Amino acid sequence: MARENEFEPDLGRIGARQPKPPRSFKRAVTKATARAGGFAKPGGGKRSSFTGARIGRGSGAGRVLASRGPQAGLRSRRVIVKAHLVQLKGSTGAVMAHLRYLQRDGVTRQGEPGELYDAEQDRANGKEFLERSDGDRHQFRFVFSPDDGAEYDDLKDLTRRFMERVESDLGTKLDWVAVDHYNTGHPHSHIIVRGKDDTGKDLIIAREYISHGMRERAQEIVTLDLGPRDAVQIDRSLKSEMEQERFTSLDRRLRQEVGEDGILRSGTDPGDGLRQTLRAGRLQKLQRLGLADEIAPGQWRLADDMEPVLRRMGERGDILKALHYEIQRQGIPRGAADYAIYDATDPNAKPIIGKLLVRGLSDELKDRHYLIVDGVDGRSHYVDIGRGNGTAPIPDGSIIAITPKRLEARAVDHTVAEIASAHGGRYSADIHMQHDKTVRREFAETHVRRLEAMRKLSQLAEREPDGTWIIAPDHVARAVSFERQQARNYPVRVETLSVLPIDRQIGTEGATWLDRELMARQPTPIRDAGFGREAREALVRRQQWLVEQDLARQDQDQIVYRANMLSVLRRRELARAAGQLSAELGLAYREAKSGDRIEGVYARKLDLASGSFAVIEKSRQFTLVPWRPVLERSMGKTVAGIARGDAISWTIGRQRGPSI
């Protein structure tokens, strides 16, 4: 029990003042924000100038470097530094895939694989870098591309000096590796920087330094190496920019000269007569493009969306150049009117069927790829397929089909929402089977995999420890949102119809794409132009071959095909391929029939005219069954399933598990 004369002494020096009470967290945040620019007043008034651009290391250097005058920038050697922040979420899988891609074949001057290096070694150990990166929250990826990169015999020394300047500006040592690429018009370096500083804390780089400081530092080094640009070089560069349909340095200067009233006045440029002429010429060009308007003599108003519109126009110009180059390289007669850029976001976008000419890289930093397809509609199409890991490698010359990503909820999403609404907002495979007694576990597990994908990639689904899923009332709307997120990275679906070039399909003993087109009730519309004409001629020659093989007959003015023609061709090809494999493997071949249980080790993928098949090996025999992409994850593992016609319901592993 407390007594009245109890007290607690406050120790300290005689005469010391009473310490101030600790400041609340809210008050500390309020004062820090005020120092950074303050809050906007609730009732109006001055708006906050705080943008977050100066948070992180290098903000001071970035601010100083960004304030350099335009004349210094004109004389500097031009260097492009592109940056991309990658969230790793504790996994190094994305880092491994990116390193493997950077070190692919054909990126050096000799056409050899790229070599990984770091600050000390010309051959860095990628495995050790991955181990150090394990558990990192994020990673920085930079593309360092000097316009005059071809002047350097080797970019390693230049890249190292550049990274030393960056470390000095950021006040920390950096853990980085790089690969040099010489497979484009401008030699460039890919630099990967761990998201940790030299104390092990998360590395935060100021946005102002990334957007301005790194480029200025790079230009400093290259300008010191090669000397500043002279007046002739500068004038030639600016003249070339005047008529370009892309965002240029002239546009950047025009935007900087706009007054507070939003008006650009002709008397603001302090340059000489040539600069005034270039400025006036650029404004006239922007006016023709609908991006500038002369509201009074010498007074201009620039469109608010001038920069994004010009950047999109520049991207379109680059795409058309890539199309033209590839068509000319392959000697295909095409006019500019036959070029098309496929827009998967267009609601009226139709599927494309045609021959794959080439697969290329549109953005090395973000690993975005494109395909150029010679379509049966007689046109050559540029197709953005998004992230490279979404489409497996396809041989050039293959016949492919491209369809836009469907931005709608799937049937499984509606089923999950329906079952969850009847069971208190919960879903699981067991609940599904109780709700519908006719459903098999394999089918219910497909719904669980869909929920797992939504949880991992978008946090749009929640799973409890016991495996039960909490389904929100707006689950279908969330599924649509998930599809939209996916479409940004994977805008189209690419299906390989045949890996055989069309000329090899004419006399092949197998169920080819030509055969499926001949037998189709609604064949693909084929235009008598370009690749369409080539496809039409191949169809006629394939008909003649089928007649010679007694698989079709001429009936007056039409061709009549055997009802089981495709299955006969398929079985003939499988028998021939199985005979070759049997001699190679020393195993007997067992044909898979509908209803058979297939079990064994998935050994390899076999591409035939009739499609792709998986080789399933057992101790004394093997089987050929239709291949599916998801099987690739189980290479060398045991799989089992039931054959159902031309398809198989698979189960991975010997134990009960998810089917595919």
Write up what this structure looks like.
Among the domains are: 59-226, BirA Bifunctional Protein, domain 2; 231-304, Arc Repressor Mutant, subunit A (Orthogonal Bundle); 411-489, Arc Repressor Mutant, subunit A (Orthogonal Bundle), CATH 1.10.10; 567-652, Beta Barrel (OB fold (Dihydrolipoamide Acetyltransferase, E2P)), CATH 2.40.50. It is built from 19 helices and 24 strands. Strand 14 and strand 15 form a beta hairpin. Mean pLDDT is 84; it is low at 36-47 and 653-660. Helix content is 37%, strand content 21%. The termini are far apart. By secondary structure, it is α+β, with helices and mostly antiparallel strands.
Write the layout of secondary structure elements.
Elements: H1 25-36, H2 59-66, H3 70-75, E1 79-87, H4 93-102, H5 126-133, E2 138-146, H6 156-170, E3 176-181, E4 188-194, H7 207-226, H8 231-242, H9 249-256, E5 264-265, H10 273-288, E6 292-296, E7 299-302, H11 306-329, E8 339-342, E9 352-363, E10 368-375, E11 380-387, E12 399-404, H12 411-421, E13 426-427, H13 429-435, H14 441-458, E14 462-463, E15 469-470, H15 475-489, E16 492-498, H16 502-505, H17 513-519, H18 530-548, E17 552-555, E18 558-561, H19 565-585, E19 588-589, E20 597-608, E21 611-617, E22 621-626, E23 638-644, E24 647-652
Parallel strand pairs: 8-11, 19-22
Antiparallel strand pairs: 1-2, 2-4, 3-4, 5-7, 6-7, 9-10, 9-12, 10-11, 12-16, 13-15, 14-15, 17-18, 20-21, 20-23, 21-22, 23-24
Helix pairs in contact: 2-7, 6-7, 8-10, 13-14, 17-18
